Amino acid sequence: MTGSCAATPGILLVDDEADWLESMTLLLSVSAGIDNVRACRDSRQVMDILDAGGVDLLLLDLTMPHLSGTELLAAVAERHPGVVCIVLSGMNQLHAAVECMRLGAYDYYVKTDDEERIIGGIRRALHMLELREENREVARRLVSGDLRRPEAFAAIRTRSPAMHAIFAYVEAVAQSPRPLLVTGESGVGKENLVRAAHELSGREGQLVALNVAGLDDTVFTDTLFGHVRGAFTGADAPRRGLVEEAAGGTLFLDEIGDLSVASQVKLLRLLQEGEYYPLGSDQPRRLCARVVAATHADLAAREREGLFRRDLYYRLRTHHVAVPPLRERPEDIEPLLDHFLDEAAAAMGKRKPTPPPELAALLATYSFPGNVRELASMVYDAVSLHTGRMLSMESFKRRIGAPEAAPIPPAGDNPFAALSALPSFAQAEKLLLAEAMARSGGRQTLAARLLGVTQSALSKRLKAQRQEDA
Questions:
Q1: Residue 120 and residue 132: Cα distance in Å, rounded?
Q2: pLDDT in tens, 393-422
Q3: What is the pTM of this model?
Q4: What is the DSSP string of 318-342?
Q5: Burial level of 426, CB count in 10 A (0-12/13-18/19+)?
Q6: What's the DSSP call for residue 289?
């Protein structure tokens, strides 16, 4: 098994027994892939080491010459409250454990405890440290609104405050070794966020992507983990899996909601244990990549239906980004329209056409079930038909069709139900016309489409209303 593949918080082992320090250092390296470990046999040196920095987790014996473990616990709590302390003692005594926890120890283990139990406790402490730091960073970025590397999101055209909040979150968790789950409807641009997360991670390895939809368990296992020579009939040569290809980088699993239940078990073990077995091999290899997953499916609903493992779901969503659909961020239509006009004109060797002023307002009335991808398709279609200076709106109108009628609310949700007195037809019509004109930016053609009437009929009603108000 290989050693650690990602940086971990600094760990300091404190014990006067040299053999124990050596065996614990080896155990952390082999069983947990943790190599950022220092050892100290003299308890009098501990505070100087902590003052110098670089230690996040302290593994501490209780019975030592010079300074005892309990004395050190009290001193660390006072001078370095951010350092997490775990006691590993030779004494299996309840009162000693209680006293250590009172002094601020995160956990207490007896040296004779099962090694897996001790390693599990250390991993939980490290995870807590990672999440604590990430929460601080997320809070700082969300409050300040600043991005250290906004260029990483250059492929995403947006004016949406919700999207900028997502950018801040992605930048804050980009260097985390824990999984990132990106959800959202098809076409919202999940892949661009994944690429930004990889770029911001600072990892030297590459971004390796796999769409898992439709893969049976055998193909998934071989593709992800690879195989050794002779693993099965026809395996004449060893094959590197994508986990190995992504070493030092990011492994991107797209459409994770469609992964078979059998394959979910293998992915869960990869995330839990941080290791895997190539087909035909009995030698485990360590996961050296950050796992990022994306899906358009509602994973919570699939988990409730028994189609997606609950434990895997919560493993994947340690960090989670839900990308809003385009219909919930109409302010993005104009910059996206301008971007796709540039892109389409360049691809077709044409001069960029000028969009009519009312085009963005027309598109804002559409729900875009295909999201950003559908808008790009519309623009490419319009530019391919374009011949003059001003871009025609006809192809957009054909694609959009008649405006979608708003669903009639259930009786319990009727907005008039809470009114003690109902408005007259004239009053209701006046309010409806005002709202349609506001949503269309004052353009009668679009307002008429929203109301399902002809422009001439709308014009007559507006004229009559102005005469009544005069």
A1: 18
A2: 889 988 887 554 455 555 556 777 767 778
A3: 0.69
A4: TEEEEPPPGGG-GGGHHHHHHHHHH
A5: exposed
A6: S
